[in-house]
Design brief:
alpha+beta, single chain, four-stranded mixed sheet, 9 helices, three-stranded antiparallel sheet, Creatine Amidinohydrolase, 32% helix, elongated, 23 strands, 374 residues, 25% strand
């Protein structure tokens, strides 16, 4: 992408990773970012202006009220709206065409077109630099993983201290449910400085649906998937980790399933080297699972085996480029490695860690232990 073409983002930075990457500034309401000729301009409301001047990574921070004043001095009687402010800023900067992210608001694009300003939506990465992380970003993801591990530790503590009464798990004098355990995990994440979202605590046959959040009583001697992916409330980077455990005694079938997934993860890590194909690594893991007796197939309209990707990019979004199975590995990519097998009658198992691709292979960023029984 040519750097001499003006680039525009109109979004809030809590929801837009592109805006947060550009400005390193958290704001809940939409604001304006413009880059022209290497100079970065941010336009903020009066509510955010002082904080923005202090914290935003920009060459220039402009207040929306100042732009409104300039518009009204030209004879405008009505209070200028957001669209008028945006058009005024672009005209003052002599911008006639902008490149925008592919998810740029269609309504604003239409208004710009009516004002004679060309809009070109960029397919793929708006900031190509986001694909490969620098040292500071890797450090930030490591911090998010420490927050993730605080939540996982609390989950293991609760499961470890629960007692078994028949098939039920008893904790704090009542049946332990997915909802209770999720609340304990999420509370630990909040205390550690993170923002939890949609934490998965799924046991038994619920765990055979990879994105089932889980509900109801957790059972003894069943596989339980804990998938935790909080955001660091300070830096905005995500952590991501999954562990599968049995509270009680794992059956031979459960243990074999768990050990097969663990070996599949090790196989995937071994293939993470610059220049290697993520697709080939993914297919190799699937082939290994099939060889071990866990083919990926449909049974009565439902998928069983390993029917999702081996991993995904991790950073300012929980799922971002590159996708494990669609990339050629490059130094600096940070990816999850999360093979799983979902086998009705035995249960679901997924083990997930995070690694950065290095010149010689990979470096694991996750630290939390892997253990089948608690």
């Amino acid at each position: 992408m040519k750097r001499d073409v003006a680039r525009l983002i109109v979004a809030d930075s809590e929801g837009s990773a592109d805006m947060l990457y550009a400005t390193r500034f958290f704001a809940p309401d939409a604001f304006i970012f413009l880059e022209k000729g290497g100079k970065k301009t941010v336009v903020l409301s009066d509510l955010e202006i002082d904080r923005g001047r202090r914290d935003a990574t920009a060459d220039e921070v402009i207040g929306m009220s100042d732009v409104k004043t300039r518009i009204q001095k030209k004879g405008g009687k009505e209070e200028p709206g957001f669209d008028a402010i945006l058009i005024q800023v672009l005209r003052e900067k002599k911008v006639r065409k902008v490149r925008v992210p592919f998810d740029f608001p269609a309504g604003i694009a239409a208004v710009l077109g009516e004002a004679g300003i060309g809009v070109e939506a960029v397919r793929g990465l708006f900031w190509p630099e986001r694909e490969c992380k620098g040292a500071n970003e890797v450090k930030a993801i490591g911090k998010a993983l420490r927050i993730t591990e605080a939540g996982m530790e609390r989950g293991m503590e609760v499961l470890g201290s629960a007692t078994i009464n028949g098939r039920n798990l008893i904790w704090g004098g009542r049946k332990l449910t997915s909802e209770i355990l999720r609340a304990e995990i999420d509370s630990a994440i909040l205390r550690a400085g993170g923002m939890p979202a949609n934490t998965i605590v799924a046991g038994g046959m619920q765990a055979c649906d990879p994105h089932e959040r889980g509900s109801g009583p957790l059972r003894a001697h069943e596989l339980i998937i804990l998938d935790i992916f909080p955001r660091d409330s300070n830096g905005g980077y995500y952590g991501d980790m999954t562990r599968t455990v049995v509270k009680g005694r794992a059956s031979d079938a459960q243990r074999r399933l768990w050990e097969t997934v663990q070996k599949g993860q090790q196989l995937a890590f071994a293939g993470m080297k610059p220049g290697e194909s993520g697709s080939e690594v993914h297919e190799g893991v699937k082939a290994f699972f099939a060889k071990e007796g866990y083919p990926t197939e449909q049974r009565e309209g439902r998928w069983v085996g390993f029917f999702h990707g081996t991993g995904h990019g991790l950073g300012l979004e929980i799922h971002e480029e590159p996708r494990f199975g669609r990339t050629t590995f490059k130094e600096g990519q940070v990816l999850t490695v999360e093979p799983g097998i979902y086998w009705p009658g035995v249960g679901g198992c997924r083990i997930e860690d995070v690694a950065v691709v290095t010149a010689g292979g990979y470096r694991k960023l996750s630290r939390f232990r892997q253990k089948v029984e608690v």
